[in-house]
Specification:
single chain, 172 residues, Elongation Factor Tu (Ef-tu), domain 3, 2 domains, 6-stranded mixed sheet, 5-stranded antiparallel sheet, 1 helix, 13 strands, 3% helix
Length: 172
C-alpha cells in the first residue's frame, strides 16, 4: 500500500494575489484543508492551505507563502500528497484509495494475465483505469466501473477486468 497519497493538484493562478485553483482528489473536496500541510511528491516543498472556497469544479485556495500571481503560476500542475496515516481509515467494504490499485495485476475473468494497473485517471466523465499490457505495447484505458472491473481484491493483489467487445471485429 502506498505510504503517501496524492490528494490534490495545483492548477492555474486565480486572480493577482497568489490564489490558485486547486483540484481536489478527495471524496469531499474541502477535506484537503483538514490534512495538515500538503507536500510535493519528493517531499521538498510543503504548503499549508490558509483558506479555500469552492469554485466551479475546483477549489480556490490561498497557500501560505504564495503572495502573488507569478508565485502561483510557478506552482501550476504540482501534485500534492499527504502521508497515508493522516487520512481517515477505510471502513467500508469495496472502498479503497486509488493509490492502492497502482501496480496490481489486471486479470481476465478466466484468471489470464492482462497486464498491470499503471494509473487511475479522471478527465471529468468518470474514472478510467490505465492498464499496461503484460506483453508490452500501448497501455489501454477502460472505464473504471463495476461492469468493466467487477472485482478489486487487494489481498490477492489483482483486479478482474471484463474487456468490452471489439465492435469493429464483429460481423453485424
Amino acid at each position: 500500500m502506498a505510504e503517501r497519497i496524492r490528494v490534490a493538484r495545483i492548477g492555474a493562478a486565480h486572480g493577482v494575489r497568489g490564489e490558485v485553483r486547486l483540484w481536489s482528489f478527495t471524496e469531499d473536496p474541502l477535506a484537503v484543508t483538514r490534512y495538515g500541510p500538503l507536500e510535493t511528491e519528493d517531499g521538498k516543498l510543503r504548503f499549508a492551505i490558509e483558506a479555500a472556497r469552492p469554485g466551479k469544479d475546483f477549489l480556490v485556495a490561498r497557500l501560505a507563502g504564495v503572495t502573488d500571481r507569478a508565485a502561483a503560476e510557478a506552482l501550476r500542475n504540482v501534485d500534492l500528497f499527504v502521508p497515508r496515516d493522516r487520512l481517515p481509515p477505510i471502513e467500508e467494504v469495496d472502498t479503497f484509495y486509488h493509490a492502492d490499485l497502482i501496480g496490481l495485476a489486471a486479470v481476465g475473468e478466466d484468471g489470464a494475465a492482462i497486464g498491470t494497473i499503471k494509473a487511475i485517471h479522471n478527465f471529468g466523465a468518470g474514472d478510467l483505469i490505465e492498464i499496461e499490457p503484460a506483453g508490452g505495447g500501448e497501455a489501454t484505458l477502460l472505464p473504471f466501473n463495476e461492469t468493466t472491473v467487477p472485482t478489486v481484491d487487494l489481498t490477492a493483489g489483482h483486479v478482474v477486468v471484463v474487456r468490452p467487445i471489439d465492435t469493429e471485429a464483429r460481423d453485424d
